[in-house]
Amino acid sequence: MAIYHLRVKFVQRSAGRSAVAAAAYRSGERLTDERRGTVEDYTRKQDIEHSEVMLPEGIPVSLQDRGALWNAVETGIKHPRGQPAFEVEVALPRELDKAQCAQLVREFAQDHFVAKGLPVDFAIHRTPASDGGEHPHAHILVSTRRFNEDGSIGKAARDMQDNPKLVAKVYALEEEGKIDEAVMLQKDLNLGQWRKSWEDYSNRFLSDAGSSSRIDHRTLAAQAVEGELAREPTPNIGIGFYGHLRAFQGHMAERVQHWKEVGFRNAMREQMDRIMERRPDLNAEFIAHAREYARNLFPEIGRDEPELEQGLDYEQ
Questions:
Q1: How far apart are CA 12 and CA 231, in angstroms?
Q2: What is the overall mean pLDDT for the chain?
Q3: Are 215 and 2 in contact (CB under 8 A)?
Q4: Alpha-carbon span 93 to 213, nearest angstrom
Q5: With respect to CATH, is domain 6-208 assigned 3.10.450.50?
Q6: What would the pLDDT profile of 281-292 be if each residue is shown by its tens digit?
Q7: Interior/surface letters 123-152, b for 16+ CB within 10 angstroms, e for the rest
Q8: Where are the domains of the chain?
Q9: Separation of alpha carbons 171 and 167, rounded Å
Q10: Beta bridge partners of 11
Q11: CB atoms within 10 A of CB 39
């Protein structure tokens, strides 16, 4: 089954990052960072399937060059703590071939960013997954500045930028299992709109490709969230060994796992009740977030699904 993942990250000077370095790493190219006076060489990076720069109408074609584009952004922003770009990271359906994946990303980027005046530089990586299959995913690097017709940098596109602190809070709430609060917080952010839209675009491409797979927010219904709304009695594991849960084996390990699963289902039911009472229109988004959180809490749920790249941002 196709998996759902969309996450927004920020390229911030305050964190020591550079849009030129980010573009070089994601595209596997060698670029000179004029602002920092460094050479960013990632030509040895593998698993890069496709990279492409997309420009809005009216921008000089010279900015089609990756180095020229991102150096124009970096040198045009004078604030020492500026944010030259943000990144939208998405998982691509395995069911789509390489050309379909590229077109899916291209259309999503065109409609959500390029058509609104922001240059985009995207790269598709196809790395090995933990199950032995492929893990296709895309990094969509978006300029935070629009350009003037003469190629000079314009003002910040604040309408297209979420507050990084609010986005971080959404992720923190998701990690804590407070899915209802995360869903309600992101409803007024671009993040929430992009997440829902990515589902729609992906499912349309899957349908056009003749695949029965779908990115389905409601898949968690069979796993934990939906079903009987009555609260399950939490099983008593008998002892308060919370700091030693991972050491249990055999029958005790099974009881601990049962305890975790029932606790998760009860928490999700309580949160769904609050969502249905306050914002029933956010029910689908809640289930999507709960499903992703469940995959982190219970690795066995996603054992057969590819994992996203983990680790540091190497361009830092």
A1: 44
A2: 81
A3: yes
A4: 9
A5: no
A6: 777 777 776 766
A7: bbbbbebeeeeebbbbbbbbbbbbbeeeee
A8: 6-208, 217-302
A9: 6
A10: 85
A11: 12
